């Protein structure tokens, strides 16, 4: 049973099967996993930065609330932009009431220590996909000479004479730790090398943006990132890339419901492993000049999937892949290597007639021809998206409760699926 959080209204999606998908959809900017990080990085400058193509998702509200609490001014800029003025006094204290709502808010730690020489940031805690520790963030800052303590649920970090560049090897290519260390290192004294860095496209984009701000970062998108610290950074005007998880969601929706779709504003190299797996299952996916094209003309074959950091099969696609495998021909083993609790949605999928069993790290999915409608609950953003696309082939009317989780990361998923001909409504 998924607990409803007290500050959010109950949101449901209602889905009825409507046959194969068809049409074109514009992939939204990657607000959740990139935009929120760039807001945090804007704290590194003493001026006004602009981020464009940053559509509204609920997590953005949390990040804006946090930046305002820290002393920045955040205002809309045109239809799809935000202007962040971080020129005033920044109070390096990120309170639990805000940070606890969203993991990405912990990304202010690096910029705050770099800019203010100290920070007190609440620990976001675990969530419904696993424990999500912070040890690598803390170890990396300590390697740069910061003193770091955990006190009363807060990470408190300070560096008396400023951060010092260092060579640091991450135990695992953590996205968040790579981002926090990068945004700390850009203003540190001397060179920093982050080994075993995360290689996700959002990291590449963060490095690109930091360089536009005047940082010296080399190797973004590879396992070794080197940073030569500079005295100060300038405000930036930048634009988000398309959200690769949203793009992958539409590909998986097509894998479930069939049809032919075109995605504009994404790149094959951002979803390459998903496209590869779908290709092995029998779907056609190819690059177009401005995005992707996909067609499913027959029932897909089951293939095994295991999640890995980029460029491997991203954990965020795993629940969506399980939805696609639930109606594929054959049996697949799905292995989750990144989180220790991301299979909660499997019980909900089973309530829709899927033949799925799981232990902590594996799920065995035996494909069935069709699913059946049920009332189900979204445990997290991708679980909710997976149940939504599974419902495209569930006979009857499926109600997915707790879809505020989905709205945290998707810019109106029901409306976008409707553009492809799906019958998905939002109900408060
Ligand atoms: N980890 C540690 N110690 C640390 C940091 C991470 O043990 O200090 C572990 C975590 O517990 C987890 C694994 O490392 O098991 C991966 O964590 P990572 O730090 O890479 O993830 P994150 O930065 O917290 C981001 C995305 C996630 C996505 C992961 C992996 C954002 C806001 N979140 O999280 O996105 O799953 O990278 O790619 O960017 C989602 O969009 O649904 C989502 C959960």
Description:
By secondary structure, the protein is an alpha/beta fold. The protein folds into two domains: 12-28 and 242-427, UDP-n-acetylglucosamine1-carboxyvinyl-transferase, Chain (Alpha-beta prism), CATH 3.65.10.10; 31-239, Enolpyruvate transferase domain (UDP-n-acetylglucosamine1-carboxyvinyl-transferase, Chain, Alpha-beta prism), CATH 3.65.10. The chain contains 14 helices and 26 strands. The strands form seven sheets. The protein has a four-stranded mixed beta sheet. A four-stranded mixed beta sheet has the order 2-15-17-16. The radius of gyration is 21 Å and the shape is elongated. The chain starts with 11 loop residues before the first strand and ends with a strand. The model is unreliable at 1-8 (pLDDT under 50). The structure holds uridine-diphosphate-2(N-acetylglucosaminyl) butyric acid. Uridine-diphosphate-2(N-acetylglucosaminyl) butyric acid (EPU) is lined by residues 32-33, 103-104, 130-137, 172, 174-177, 200, 245, 314-316, 338-339, 381-382, 409.
Break the fold down into its secondary structure elements and pairings.
Blueprint: E1 12-16, E2 21-26, H1 31-41, E3 48-52, H2 58-70, E4 73-77, E5 81-85, E6 93-94, H3 96-99, H4 109-116, E7 118-122, H5 135-143, E8 147-151, E9 154-158, E10 167-169, H6 175-185, E11 191-195, H7 201-212, E12 216-218, E13 224-228, E14 237-239, H8 244-257, E15 259-264, H9 272-281, E16 284-288, E17 291-296, E18 305-306, H10 318-325, E19 331-335, H11 345-351, E20 355-358, E21 362-366, E22 371-372, E23 375-377, H12 381-390, E24 394-395, E25 398-401, H13 404-409, H14 413-419, E26 423-427
Parallel strand pairs: 2-15, 3-14, 6-7, 10-11, 18-19, 22-24, 23-25
Antiparallel strand pairs: 1-25, 1-26, 3-5, 4-5, 7-9, 8-9, 11-13, 12-13, 15-17, 16-17, 19-21, 20-21
Helix pairs in contact: 1-2, 1-7, 4-6, 5-6, 6-7, 8-10, 8-12, 10-12
Bound molecules: uridine-diphosphate-2(N-acetylglucosaminyl) butyric acid.
